[in-house]
Amino acid sequence: MRSSDVREASDVRGVDVLVVGGGIIGLVTAWRAALRGLRTAVVDPE
Length: 46
Hints:
The protein is an alpha+beta fold.
């Protein structure tokens, strides 16, 4: 992931997939969505 791909947590507008939780399942889900060309964001409460 490039640093330019990282957004502020409050800026999730314009994403196709919003994954809540940065655990292994959430990260794999986000990764798979991104591989399919979907704009993806991950938010984690910690």
